[in-house]
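Predict both folds.
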Amino acid sequence: PPATSQQGIGNLVHAAAMLARDASVDRAELAGYVAARFDAIEMAARWLAQRERVRADQMLDRLLGWLAGNPRRLAAIEHEFLVRLGEGVELKGRVDRLEIDGDGRLVVVDLKTGKSKPTAAEVAEHAQLGAYQAAVEAGAFAELGTVSGGASLVQLGAPGKSAEQRQPPLAEAEAPGWAGEMIKRAASTMAASTFTAVANSTCRTCPVRTACPVSGKGRQLGTALPGSGEGGAGGDRGGSGAGADPRGGGEP
């Protein structure tokens, strides 16, 4: 589906943030980047434009505030990677920021511009952050190091005292191998011929929720066998469907 105006603003601010290596960045440069591209975003109503401009400015301020207090050293911005994780499993992606902490460990930082954010408990098992950490340990950024110092979400669009939400290093987790196991399960799920529908926090915005059997709206499509008594198209029996839990098949 096409991006909403809020998503468009978020994407624009995210792109501007990629120009900011550290707190020494010129705020006027970032603001100018946003302003020059702002009118290209389609608004549902004209009065929304001013509100969204204010929101974009607030996100830039939040970015600069976070950069000013960030103790780590930047190693790379928008760094792509491809790494093998066990037999037949490859992990491919791109990290927003790759930083080095005081102990020389790699920390992946992911910038978020949405209005909501996960709880602390959810961050501890955040699939995307866990996958990034597993990639670090598997040598995705071997030229910089292979020891993970954790991973972080930096919330530019959500309110709160601190913009950064940190996931501890995998080595400090109760089950250090949880992220690697998650990725292997995801690979196995993606290679299967069917998917098990699992209710999760992304169901509300899933583009195929009306066809999903766990949504309460989805129905099995097909032709009923004569005398089977089973519903065909529009029947009440649900089969496998979309909307799988991100822990089972989420993206990094």
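Second protein follows, with its predicted structure tokens after the sequence.
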Amino acid sequence: RRPVGTSAPFMEHASLPRNFANVVEGPAKHRPPTSKPHAVPIDAKAAREAAAKYQREQKQRDREAKREQAAREKEGEHRERAVATAEAALEAAAGAHKRTVAALEKARAALDGKLEAENKRWAEQQEHLGEALRRARSD
């Protein structure tokens, strides 16, 4: 090991350096004295120009904000109209669907009636023809 902060040769057991206080705290640093910043004198004409420029920019920002607000309102109105149109189309389609389903149910009921009548007719005809067949075989 070597004593901290030195370029002494390496040894089995390192000892503290002779200038230990400087190594721990570091060498004394020379700092130049700080001076207070000097206040820059304000030019009245430049201040008026800066204030006028700020006012112009503020008016521009206000106009831009109004323009953006108007665009948002217009977009909102457009969206509301689109929603109303879509809702009306949905209601119209739902009404048409209900009418179609009602017509199909009515047609189904009529077909069920016809099917029942046909099954009844077939049962009677099958019974008569079956009886005729039995009579023909027995004769």
